[in-house]
Every structure is written in structure tokens, then in C-alpha cells.
Amino acid sequence: MALTKMQKACLAAAEREDVVREGVHGISKKDVQLDAVKVKNVRFEVGAATKGCMHAHVAYVLMGRIKIRMADGSEEIFAAGDVMMLPPGHDAWTVGDEACEFIEFSRGTDDYYGEA
Q1: 11: helix, coil or strand?
Q2: What is the pLDDT of residue 24?
Q3: CATH of the structural domain 22-107, one choice from 3.20.20.60, 2.40.50.100, 2.60.120.10, 3.90.78.10
Q4: Residue of 78, 72, 70 whose CA lies nearest to 101
């Protein structure tokens, strides 16, 4: 898809919603859509966690820290200023006594790993 026009959306003005899904607690998001790209502000409160997430993510961490454990057991902590790219099949939870907030960029099926 070729970009044919400049676009603008205000993420700060979007309404924050709680994420309600099995295996998820303490997470909220707000998002805006620009043609084929969705941009989300995601917030994991202190103690928030998700288990068995099957979505891919590309995000920039604004504040706090989040630990990711992949299905193969590998782990990484991402902190403010880090960019993370996660394949499907991971658990995530906040680390420390500060909420973690990040900006996520997604497109279509979020197929960043070349799978159909």
C-alpha cells in the first residue's frame, strides 16, 4: 500500500480502555488508526501481567520496566528508551514499583516475522 497523503491523529485525546481478556489484568490502552497502521498507548499497572499472548508487538517503552518470557523460556527486561519486537507466544509483567507504559505500532495482521 503506497502512502498517498499525510495523516495525523491525537493519541493523547483518545479514550483509555481496560483490556478485558482471559489471562490479563491491570492493563489499559488507547489507540488511534492511520490507514493501515494502528498506534496504541499501552499501560501495565504495577503488578499487571498477561500470559500466553499470541500477538506480535513492536513498541517503544516510555516509562517503567516490563519483563517478557518467551514460550522457549528466554527472558528479557525492557525499560524506558528501549524498543521491543516480540513474536507471538510470550508472557509479560511489570518489574518494580512503577507502571510500564509503551507506544505500540501495528499493521494489518502484525505479521512482522514473515508468516502468513
Answers
A1: helix
A2: 73
A3: 2.60.120.10
A4: 78
Question: Which residue type sits at 48?
Answer: A
Q: Is the dihedral of CA 41, 46, 50, 54 positive or negative?
A: positive
Measured between its terminal Cα atoms, the distance across the chain in Å is: 17
Residue type, 24: V
For residue 101, the tally of other CB atoms under 10 A from its CB is 18
Q: How far apart are CA 105 and CA 107, in angstroms?
A: 7
Give residue limits of the domains in the chain.
Answer: 22-107
- CA atoms of 76 and 14, how far apart (whole Å): 30
Please list, residue by residue across 22-40, b when 16 or more beta carbons sit within 10 angstroms of its beta carbon and e when fewer do. Answer: eebebbbebbbeeeeebbb
The tens digit of pLDDT for each residue in 74-87 reads 999 999 999 999 99
Question: Quick one: cell of 114?
Answer: 514473515
User: Nine-digit cell at 87?
Assistant: 513474536
- Predicted TM-score of the model (pTM): 0.85
